[in-house]
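Z., the sequence and structure:
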Amino acid sequence: MWCSLLNTQRVCRYRMKLGDEDQWYPISPLCRNRITAVCDMFTYLRYIQLGLVKSGVQDVYWEVIRLRKQMTLARLGLS
């Protein structure tokens, strides 16, 4: 099966739907891991912005560093 994001033939265990379209696009685990890593980072940053994170500055810093590491590992295909 062809991964819609990589445009190569890969094992695609996941599907992604864009907006209000009815069509589902097959995506590989590599693409799915990259998308989830970025979404986790943006979600945490939004929680900080909304004041929902009650941790100290150092804890927030190390969590952001951990999420950045996850994005890097996903980008390299190691997550």
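The chain has a mean pLDDT of 95. Residues 2-76 form one domain.

Let me know what you think.
H.
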